[in-house]
What we know:
Layout: H1 11-20, H2 23-31, H3 41-49, E1 52-58, E2 64-70, E3 77-80, E4 83-89, H4 96-103, E5 106-113, E6 118-129, H5 133-139, E7 148-162, H6 173-213
Antiparallel strand pairs: 1-2, 1-5, 3-4, 4-7, 5-6, 6-7
Amino acid sequence: xxxxxxxxxxxxxxxxxxRRGSRTAYARMEKKGGFATTIEPGLAGFIAEARSxxxxxxxxxxxxxxxxxxxxxxxxxxxxxxxxxxxxxxxNRQYITTGNLAENxxxxxxxxxxxxxxxxKIWGTARxxxxxxxxxxxxxxEGYKARAEAVILFTIEAWDxxxxxxxxxxxxxxxxxxxxxxxxxRVIQLExxxxxxxxxxxxxxxxxxxxxxx
Length: 214
């Protein structure tokens, strides 16, 4: 019986798994249903925090292409339990992804969270929606400095989360800058408090000295 994980585990892949010793474990997973096929609350929360992801497509001849997509948290939107969407910001105008999707709807989204060492793979199909001002406005991140040329709708067929092994931890520069600014403000506050306490101690010693002189 077909499993949702068959979208990734082709007969050739299963053959390699058999040869290298992992097929039994994945066969047990397949008996339980395979990969998840709908957006659960945990995945929705993960997507809502994403500031970048990779979108993979291929031409009708199978030539692969991977494009990075970035924006503020929430720019990749969950529309329902099977659908993701995002505004297609203007870029270098090569339109490789757009052209690929025009002849081959198969696509994949790869989400990386380097800070927390998490990754999610999402298989499905995608299509480009042009000239829909209402949908553009709905999906465009408020205040973001970019121009939306279209919208890409992604229909989920299956998804899987990987273990954190070999993911090197990295932080966003703006997050580090915010923490540094907060620490700088705290240092200023502590220095002011230290100066106040030193002044109070100095005054106390002065008054004590004057009292002894009397």
